[in-house]
Specification:
Elements lengths: L1 H15 L5 H5 L3 H16 L3 H9 L1
């Protein structure tokens, strides 16, 4: 399970790598933030819930 979780976290990281963070995120318009949030949520919805619960603890 540990290897499987690492693979899922890696997949999530790769799939969301284009989404800005920190100051770059703050500089986005509200509409762009909403669009990227929706995209991220769509990506996350495809991952098993157990991985998401683990990710939120990190």
């Amino acid at each position: 399970m540990k290897l499987s979780m690492s693979v899922s976290f890696t997949q999530l990281a790769v799939a969301t790598a284009h989404i800005p963070i920190l100051d770059d995120w703050a500089a986005l318009s509200k509409s762009e933030k909403r669009r990227l949030d929706a995209e991220r949520e769509s990506i996350e919805s495809k991952l098993p819930r157990v991985y998401l619960r683990s990710a939120r603890k990190i």
